[in-house]
Structure formats: C-alpha cells, structure tokens
Specification:
The protein has 6 helices and 20 strands. Strand 17 and strand 18 form a beta hairpin. The mean pLDDT is 97. 25% of the residues lie in helices and 26% in strands. The strands form 7 sheets. Strands 6-7-15-11-12 form a 5-stranded antiparallel β-sheet, with helices on one face. Strands 1-2-5-3 form a 4-stranded mixed β-sheet, with helices on one face. Strands 17-18-19 form a 3-stranded antiparallel β-sheet. The structure holds flavin-adenine dinucleotide (FAD). The site of flavin-adenine dinucleotide has 31 residues, from strand 3, helix 3, strand 9 and strand 15.
Length: 292
C-alpha cells in the first residue's frame, strides 16, 4: 500500500470486482480506489503514472467481463456527489461521469428536454456511455455531446469540444484516461410525447432482450450492415451452453449466466461462437463487450 499511503480511506487492496459489474463475475482488483474529489483523483492518477501501475476506470460495469484471475493495478471508480452531479442550464446539461445514465434520461424527459431518449434501457454511467458511445438503432449519446472534460494520466485536466470530438459505432476518439464530465446539448420538446417515446423503446427492449438475467448487453458488434445477433442465431447457436454461460434464447447476441458461472465459461463460449461463425459465414465477429 506504500504507493497509496495517506489515501487508505479510499483504497482497498484485493477487492472483489464481482460486486461492481452486471455480470457479477471475475476476480479481484489489486487496488480498488474510490476518489470522491477531483483533487483525490488527480493524486491517485499521478501516483499510478509515476509508479507505472496500470489503471482502469470503472463505470457501472454494464459492459465488462472481469477475468477470473482478477486485474493487476488500480481500478478507479468515481464516487460521491462531486462525480455524479448534473447541472441543467436552459437547453443543455453538464453531467458528471459518475451520474446514472438512466436517471439522466428520465430527468431530461421530465424537463421537456429531448435528445437522450434513444438511450432508454441502457444501463451505465455517463462516463461509460461516452467512452462506449452507447446507443442503438434509435441513436447514440455522441450525437448530443458538445464537449467533455478529461483528465490525462499525468493528472492534467482539459476540455475537448466539437469538432475535435469524434463518435463512431461504439467508439470515440477520447484517449485520455478519465472522462470527468460532458456537456450535452438538448432541444425543447413535449414531455408527454417524449414519455410515449421512451415507453415504446422500453417495451421494445423488454420484448427483445433477456432483461431479467445476468448479462452485459450485446457481446459482439454488428458487422457493417448486418446484425451480430441474427448471424449467431442463423449459425444455430441460440441456447448453446458452456459451464454456466449460455447464448440467450431471446436474443442471440446476449450471453446470460447462471449461478456458479465463471468468467472463463463466458470467454470459452465467446471463442466457440466466433469459431462457428467464422467457419459458417467467414465473418470475424468483433467484441463489443470489454474483457479485463
Ligand atoms: C441489459 C443491458 C442492455 C444494454 N444495452 C445496450 C445498448 O442498447 N446499447 C449500448 O451501447 N450498450 C448497451 N449495453 C452495454 C452498456 O450498458 C453500455 O456500454 C454502457 O455505456 C456502459 O457504461 P458503464 O458505466 O457501465 O461502463 P463500464 O462497463 O463500467 O465500462 C465500459 C468502458 O467505459 C470506460 N469508462 C467508464 N467510465 C469511464 C470514465 N469516467 N472515464 C473513462 N472511461 C470510462 C471503462 O474503462 C470501459 O472501457 C447494455 C448492457 C446491459 C447490461
């Protein structure tokens, strides 16, 4: 712990990450760090950098599979009020990275501010949503982002704004270690109409996704012009099991897990799906799920 001396209240050694991800799988983080202020975060980030300690930032863990052997180095989770604030001003909102995305979507709708409805039913934090450019067939978060505040691994804080910000399918050009907040531009709209829209999206998701299971959303990216789920389905892999991991019968791009499942089960199943899809259709499926 010498490297983090003086920060013992926010640093846990050998902390199980299964408590912090949607899958609820995987091993421990060597250091699990929960800074509550920008100053603490800068202190943590610079100490990691100076000591060549790998660092990762965790949002709500809804797009992650943590390996059974755990993660070396520091896993940083932004904690507390300062990192979860949202500040509305006329038709925009500055949302801190730790803010809950689903709550933000609802707050916008209640205020009659349109733009984030396409993110209905996507769990996660604002930071994770920006890093992943979360979205789907209804739209993505990048379309509404005006600027972001970032921290690099030396602890420098800077802003990146349109047009130097680029968002693409499930990716951004943000390379800085930590996203601190984002300014999101919205437009005035009718709250009743927006409420109807998010209900429709919600019903669509409820009907098409295995929402009451342990999963991390879509495992594979859609190859250009194709649906990864449809490809896995056409390969006849729905319901395929490895240990406690199974291809969902409801949506073939979801891998769901049951009690006793190991991360390795999910990894093996992913490898099998990729192999079978390559053999059958000569398509190389790329991961959307991030593996630590
Ligand atoms: C039921 C279900 C449905 C889903 N549906 C969708 C969907 O329709 N569309 C979609 O796009 N995704 C979907 N997902 C995946 C997931 O919800 C999104 O990718 C989400 O944006 C991840 O946010 P998170 O905070 O949980 O990030 P995490 O999973 O914790 O992390 C994801 C990535 O973001 C990085 N990150 C997180 N916070 C920060 C930060 N502050 N600074 C820098 N990097 C950061 C992490 O290091 C990691 O690289 C779904 C997941 C589930 C479980």
């Amino acid at each position: 712990m010498r490297i983090f001396s003086g920060l013992e209240t926010i640093v846990k050694k050998d902390c199980p990450l299964s408590d912090y991800t949607w899958y609820g799988l995987g091993g421990k983080a060597e250091y699990f760090i929960t800074p509550t202020t920008t100053e603490q975060l800068r202190d943590v980030v610079t100490r990691c950098n100076e000591n060549d300690l790998p660092m990762r930032v965790l949002g709500l863990g809804s797009n992650l599979l943590v390996s059974d052997k755990g993660v070396r180095g520091a896993v940083i989770k932004l904690a507390g009020e300062q990192f979860s604030k949202t500040d509305f001003s006329e038709t925009s909102v500055v949302a801190c990275a730790g803010a809950n995305l689903s709550k933000l979507v609802l707050d916008c709708v209640r205020k009659g501010l349109s733009g984030l409805e396409p993110l209905t039913g996507i769990p996660g934090s604002v930071g994770g949503a920006i890093k992943m450019n979360a979205g789907g067939s209804f739209g993505d978060i990048g379309a509404s982002v005006e600027s972001v505040t970032l921290m690099d691994k030396q602890g420098n804080i800077f802003e990146k704004s349109k047009p130097e910000l680029a968002f693409d399918y499930r990716r951004t050009n943000i390379t800085a270690k930590v996203i601190l907040d984002a300014k999101i531009q919205l437009t005035e709209s009718d709250p009743e109409q927006m409420l109807r829209t998010i209900k429709e999206i919600w019903i669509y998701k409820k009907n098409s996704q295995p929402l009451h299971t342990k999963n991390a959303g879509c495992v594979f990216k859609n190859p250009r012009g194709l649906s990864a789920g449809a490809i896995v389905d056409r390969a006849g892999l729905k319901g395929l099991k490895t240990g406690g991991a199974m291809i969902s019968e409801k949506h073939a791009n979801f891998i769901i897990t049951e009690k006793g499942c190991k991360s390795d089960d999910v990894k093996k199943l992913i490898a099998t799906v990729r192999e079978r899809v390559k053999e059958e259709f000569d398509i190389e499926l790329e991961l959307e799920l991030e593996i630590w």
